[in-house]
Amino acid sequence: MLADIEKLLQLQVADQEIRKLQEEIAELPKRIGVIEQKLAGTKAQLEKARAAAKADEANKKKYESTIQDLQGKISKYRDQSLDVKTNEQYKALLHEIQFAEQEIRINEDRILEVMVNVEAREKAVKAAETELKAETARIEKEKEDARRVTAEDQAKLAEWNGKRDGLRQGIDGDLLRHYERVMKFRGSGLAEVRDQKCMGCQVMLRPQTYNVVRNGEQIVFCDSCQRVLYFNPENEPKPEQVVEPVHARRRARPKADAPQAWFYRPDYGEAGEVLLVFTNENGTASRCIYDMHSGRQLGDVLNREGNYRQAFPEDLTETAVRLNGHWEEEEMQEWGSEMPSSILDALHSDLRAAQREHGKVHKDVSTGATEQSAAS
Ligand SMILES: [Zn+2]
Question: Which among 286, 285, 292 has a CA at the least distance from the CA of 338?
Fold first, then answer.
C-alpha cells in the first residue's frame, strides 16, 4: 500500500473523530434546551393549578357574601310584613322572600361544588410541585453531566486536532486537497475496493482501474464518487475461504461430447485471462471469448466447419482448463456483450474447484514420491 494512502487512512480516522466530537459538543446544549422547555411547561402547569385554587377561594367568598346579603334582605322583608296594610302588599313581600330563599339555595349549591373541586385542585398542585422538584434536580444533573462531557470532548478534540495537523503535513498537497474536498461533501474521502466494487458508492470499477488499485502503486480516484481508492488484501476472500455450494464440493466432470464446452485460458495473447465457449451444431463449431474478470465479450463469434476440437485446435492448448457450464442459446443471446455476474461467478467458482482438484492431485503424487524414497 502507498505511504500516502496509509497516512490518509489515519487522517480519515482523525477527521471522523473530530467531526463526531464537534457534533456531540453541539448536541449537548440542544439536549439541555429540550429539558428546560419541559421544565418551563411544568412550571406553567403549577401556576395554572395555583391560580385555579385561588379563583375557587375567591368564588367561595363571593357566594358566601351573596348568601349573607340575601339573608339580610329576608329579615328586612319579614320586618316589613308586620306593617303591611293590604293583602296584595303581603303577597308581594312573601314572593320576594321566596325568591331570596331560592337564590340562597343556588349559592349554597355553588359553594358545595367549589368544595368538591378543592380536593382535586390540591392534588393537582401537589403533583405539579413534586414534578417540578424532580425535574429541577434532573436538569441540574444533566447540566453538570453536559459540562463534564463537553470539557472531556474538548480535550479530546484538541488532541485529535493536533494529530490531524501532524498527519496532514506528511501528505502530498494535491492529494490532500482532493481528499479534503471529497471528505467535506461525503463524510469520507477514502474508500476501500472489495470484489471490484468501490465500497463508498457501491459502483463497479472497470477491470483496468481495479488492477491498478490492487497493485497499489498509483493513486486512483473512484470515477463516480471521487473518493481515493485503496485495496486491503486482508479483506479479499481467499479461494480456500470461499464457501462453495454443497453440490460443487465434489466437482462434476465436464462431459467430453457435450454440445457446449467452456474453457479457461490464463494466457490468451493480449487479452490475458479469458473464458472461451464452444458450441457444436449441425457440423459447425462456433467460438465466443469473454474477458475473465469483467465478463465482457471480446471480438465477434467465429464459426468454422467440423466440431470444435477439430475446428479450433490452436485454442485448446495445455493451459486450457475445461469448465462445467451449459446455458441455452436463447439465454446466452440475452446476455448481449456481457455475461451476467451470476454466470461469471459460477464459472469462477468452478475454475477454483478445478484448480483445487488439480493442486490436490499434484500434492498426492509428491507425497507418494517422498514416501517411496524414504522406504527405499
Ligand atoms: Zn465510489
Answer: 292
